[in-house]
Amino acid sequence: MYRQLGIILNRSGEIVHVVLGDSKSIEIPHLERTRSTSNRLRGLRLIHTHLFDEGLSEEDLTDLVLLRLDSISAVTIDDEGFPKFLYSAHINPDPEAEIPWILQEKKHFSQLQFDFSEVLYALEDEFNKHATKIVNFQRENRAFVLGVYKQNTPQRSIDFSISEIKELCKTADIFVVGDFIQKRQSLDPTTVMGKGKLKEILLKAVQKNIELLVFDLELTPSQAKKISDYCDVKVIDRTQLILDIFARNAKSRDGKFQVELAQLKYLKGRLSELDDNMSRLTGGIGGRGPGETKLEIGKRRVEDRINRLEKELKQLKKRRELNRKRRNKNLIPVVAIVGYTNAGKSTLLNSLTNSEVIAENKLFATLDPTTRRIRFPEEREIILSDTVGFIQDLPPELTNAFKATLEELGDSDLLLHVIDASNPNYLEHIKSVEKILFELNLSNINRIQIYNKIDILNENVIIPENEIKISSLNKTGLDDLLNLIETTLWNAKLQ
Ligand SMILES: Nc1nc2c(ncn2[C@@H]2O[C@H](COP(=O)(O)OP(=O)(O)OP(=O)(O)O)[C@@H](O)[C@H]2O)c(=O)[nH]1
Ligand SMILES: [Mg+2]
Question: For 152-171, what is the mean pLDDT?
C-alpha cells in the first residue's frame, strides 16, 4: 500500500518531524504548545505528499488553522514518482474573513521558485496590523461561551443559563466575544458538541484570537483535554469559572481555606490526566492556581494539602462554635440574610446597620459571613449576618467546602430572603434559593421574602400587595421591614 509522507520544517528549514500517513490522509503529531499571543504563527510548516492528483483537503486546511502552521503544502507526484504540482495555503490573517485560509495558485514543480521567508514576513505583517486593531479594543481573556443543552430544554431556561454564565464571565474579567448554543439529543461523550461543530467553532476561535472556551456545563477531564488538544485554546467549564471567582473574592482565612480546598478537590479528580493541558486547565483564568499551590504538584502533595486544610478548617470551626455558644447564651436572636448572588444582601446589611461591607455589582462579592448588631427600642437586639450568595447548580465541590459556614445558618431564628426584583429571572432565582435552603435543611426556619431594588423595577413586574418591597440602596421600605422582623421574632418568642 502507498502512503502519504510528510515533513514538518522549522523556520531555519530543519526537519523537526517526519510523518507517515495512509493513502488518504496524514495525522500530525502532537506539536509543542506555543503560548505567545503576539506571534500568531507557530513557526512550523508542513509539506506532504498526495498520492492522487488533488489539492489540499478540507482536513489539511483545518489542521493548518487549528495548529497555526506557517503554511501547509501538498505535493502530487507523476507516474514515475517525481514531484508534479505544489498546492499551498496559509492562514487568512483577517479575523473577519469568511474563509480562514488562503489558497495559493498551484504551481508546477518545473516553475517553482519563490522565497518562503518573504511570504512569511508579509503574512506576519498582516497579522500584526489586525492585532493592533484588537489591542485598542479588548485583547486579554477573549472568550467564546458554548452552551450545549438537551433537545427539550425550554428556550427560557437556555436564555437564563447563558445570561448567567456571561455574568459570571464578566465578574471574572473574561471578555465574551461570542456565544454558540446547541441543542442535542445527548452530549457527545468525547467532544460534547460533536467533532464537526467543534472544529467549526475552533476555526472561528483561532481567527478571532480567542484564548478561552467557556462551557456552560461541567466537562469531564477527558472532554476538556480532547477539546483543547485540537488547538491552543484554554477550555474551562462553569465549575472552574465559579471556583475562580470564589478564589478572587475570598478574604478571610476561613474563606481562603475553603476555596482552596474546593479547588484542590476539583483538581484531585483530574490529576491522573495532569499534563500540559491539565496545567492550563487548572491554571485558572489569569494563570491563578489554587491558593499558593504550585500547578505542577503531584497527587500526594495535593492529598497532604487537602488533609492540612481540612484540619485547619476544623479548628476554625471549633472557634466559631465557641463564639456561637457565647452568643446563644446571651439569647440574642440571629437573623441571616440569604438570597441569590447579587440580590443586594450586603447592601441591605449596610443600610440596616450603617456599615460598609463590600457591596458590588459582581457575582459572589461576599464570601465571608459578616455579622452586625441592630438595636431595637425596649432593649431588644438582634445579630444580623450576611452570607455567600446562592446560584443555581452550585458546584458540589463548593457546596461541600462552604457547608460548614452554611450549616451555621441553621442556628438562625429568622432568614431574610432578599430577591432582586429587577432581575428578569427573579422567579428562577427564588426557586433556586428555596431548593438550596431545602437541601441545607433550612426550610423550617421562619423566613421573610424581601423584594429588593424596587427603585429600578421593570414596569411589567407586579409584586403582590402584602409583600415587603424595599430599595436597600435608597433605604426605602426599611422601617416596615424592621417592624416585621421585630414582630416576627418577639411575637414568635412570646408564644
Ligand atoms: N438600584 C438598586 N441597586 C441595588 C439595590 N440593592 C443593591 N443594589 C446593587 O446591586 C449590586 C449587588 O449588591 P450586593 O449588596 O453586593 O449584593 P449581594 O447580594 O451581597 O451579592 P453577592 O455578595 O455578590 O452575592 C450592587 O451594585 C448594589 O449597589 C437597590 O435596592 N437598588
Ligand atoms: Mg454580598
Answer: 93
Atom 13 in ligand 1: which residue has the minimum CA distance? Answer: 344
Residues 219 and 262 in one domain: no
Residue nearest to atom 9 of ligand 1 (CA): 344
Which of 338, 342, 358, 469 should be mutated for ligand 1, with most atoms under 8 A from CB? 342
d(CA 343, CA 316): 28
Helices 155-171 & 238-249, crossing angle to 10 degrees?
40
Give residue 471's domain range: 331-494
The answer, yes or no, to whether residue 454 has pLDDT greater than 50, is yes
If you average pLDDT over each of 281-285, 291-295, 425-429, which comes out highest? 425-429
pTM score over 0.85: no
Q: Where residue 178 sits, what CATH number does that domain have? A: 3.40.50.11060
DSSP per-residue codes, 28-53 = PPPPPP---SS--S-SEEEEEEESSS
Cβ–ligand 1 contact at 423 (below 6 Å) = no
Amino acid at 421: A
DSSP 340: B
Is 53 strand, coil or helix? coil
Q: Are residues 55 and 157 in the same domain?
A: no
Ligand 2 center from residue 399 Cα (angstroms): 17
Q: Which residue has the cell 461523550?
A: 189
- 454 and 438, same domain (yes or no): yes
Q: Are residues 336 and 474 in the same domain?
A: yes
CB 4 less than 6 A from any atom of ligand 1: no
CA–centroid distance, residue 365 to ligand 1 (Å) = 9
Nearest to residue 262, comparing CAs of 296, 280, 239, 286? 239
In this structure, the answer to whether residues 385 and 279 fall within a common structural domain is no
Question: If you measure from the C-alpha of residue 46 to the centroid of ligand 1, how many angstroms do you get, rounded to a whole number?
Answer: 55
447 Cα–ligand 2 center, Å: 19
Q: Is the CB of 433 under 6 A from ligand 1?
A: no
Is 251 a pocket residue for ligand 1 (Cβ < 6 Å)? Answer: no
Separation of CA 344 and ligand 2 centre (Å)? 7
- Indicate the length of the chain as a whole number: 495
CA separation for the pair 316, 327 (Å, rounded):
17
The atom of ligand 1 lying closest to the CA of 452 is 31
**Is residue 21, in this structure, part of any structural domain at all?**
yes
Same structural domain, 10 and 120: yes
Would the pLDDT of 43 be above 60? Answer: yes
Cell of 55: 489539492
| Cβ contact 107:90 at 8 Å | no
Task: Answer yes or no: is the C-beta of 387 below 6 A from any ligand 1 atom.
Answer: no
Cell 485560509 belongs to: 101
**Ligand 1 nearest atom to the CA of residue 361, by list position:** 27
378 and 485 share a domain?
Answer: yes
Do 482 and 345 belong together in one domain?
A: yes
What pLDDT band is residue 396 in, cutting at 50, 70 and 90?
Answer: confident
